[in-house]
Amino acid sequence: MVKLSEIIRKTGEEKPQDEPGLISEAAKKKDDVDILGETKKIYEDAIIHLRPILNEVVRGKTIQGGEIVSIAEVILEQIQVENDTLLSLINIFGSLGEKEDYICSHSINVSILATNLGLALGYDKSKLVDICVSSLLHDIGMLKIPIEIRNKPSKLEKEEFEVIKKHPALGLDLLNNIRDLPLSAPEIVYQHHERLDGTGYPEGKRGDEIADSAKIVAVTEVYEAITHPRFYGKEKQIPYDGVKAIVQKAGRSFEPKLVKVFLNFITPYPLGSYVLLNNNEIGRIVGINKNLPLRPVVDIFFDAEGKPPKKSKRVNLAGSPVLHIEKPVDDSRL
């Protein structure tokens, strides 16, 4: 089994930044979201604008791919301007409240993550837009699955899961209703559930039989689904568990190189998550040291006795060798 500490390594010898681009002042509390401002609005608008487009395609209406490209270009622009905040929104927010929003919010989140992975791989703007557009559509076939199955609150029966496994093929058919799509769209829609070792679906493809673009979305889609499950009786897991699941499947389900690059911007302890330090203090991550992702900046919320500190306290673990993270904390249990 691959250990997190083995796969997350320093990418250079540069010293960590003294001011690592903190957003804690913008997200002190989960319910204090207005202060996230324009980035939050862009994130929510993307979900709102994607919903009717997907619904029109499912109803059989032919649309221009440019409608989806417009959403992708806004996402890419925001990634380039305020990426830390955008990534934090994936952890802070899920759907906008309705079950039918799930596919849209899931698709937006996957597109943000996949575009980040493409950016980390050195893709140019044109290729980044292509992968963002294709990721926005990756689960469109799920909208053709009977609602009582895709929204089932309990574990799926074997026969029901067989129905779910049809969504890549259904999605591929729906792409015929969208003009001027990137070449990566059919690959991603049809192959994002394929796995390196042949255990995926719909065709059980292996290794190089799977398109590179689909391998990218496979990693990001699984991470997003683990940390934002909605149905099938699954409980939401904290980002640490999502990272752990991806790492454990590196080399079997996912391309190891992609996993390693993915962990350059998705850490086990992302912005806004909570951790327990080895001195029994509990705090929230407010900054990431790019070269030391396992030693972030933490605002202390509870001291060793479980009480709020009398004075605000911020610890940069990169400069505190005695302190380290003992384990992640599910903030819903605080």
Architecture overview:
By secondary structure, this protein is of the alpha+beta class. It has 2 domains: 209 residues, Hypothetical protein af1432; 59 residues, no CATH class. It contains 12 helices and 7 strands. Strands 6-5-4-3-7 form a 5-stranded antiparallel β-sheet, with no helix packed on it. Strand 3 and strand 4 form a beta hairpin. Helix 3 crosses helix 4, helix 4 packs antiparallel against helix 5 and helix 5 crosses helix 9. The longest helix is centred in the N-terminal third of the chain and has 27 residues. The chain is globular and about 60 Å long. The N terminus is likely disordered.
User: What are the low-pLDDT stretches, counting only 5+ consecutive residues below 50?
Assistant: 1-5, 7-35, 94-98
Our measurement of the CA-to-CA distance between the termini, rounded to an integer number of angstroms, reads 31 Å
- At CATH level 3, the topology of the largest domain is Hypothetical protein af1432
Helix content estimate: 40-55%
User: For this entry, what is the oligomeric state of its chains?
Assistant: single chain
CATH architecture of the largest domain: Orthogonal Bundle
Please compute the radius of gyration using only Cα atoms: 20 Å
The largest sheet has its strands arranged as 6-5-4-3-7
Q: Secondary-structure element order, as H and E?
A: HHEHHHHHHEHHHHEEEEE
CATH class category name of the largest domain: Mainly Alpha
Query: Which structural class matches the secondary elements?
Result: alpha+beta
Instruction: Give the integer mean of the pLDDT values.
Output: 84
Tell me the name of the CATH homologous superfamily of the largest domain: Hypothetical protein af1432
Beta-strand residue percentage: 5-15%
User: Outline, from the CA principal axes?
Assistant: globular
Tally of DSSP β-strands = 7
Major pleated sheet: 5 strands, antiparallel
The tally of structural domains comes to: 2
Number of helices: 12
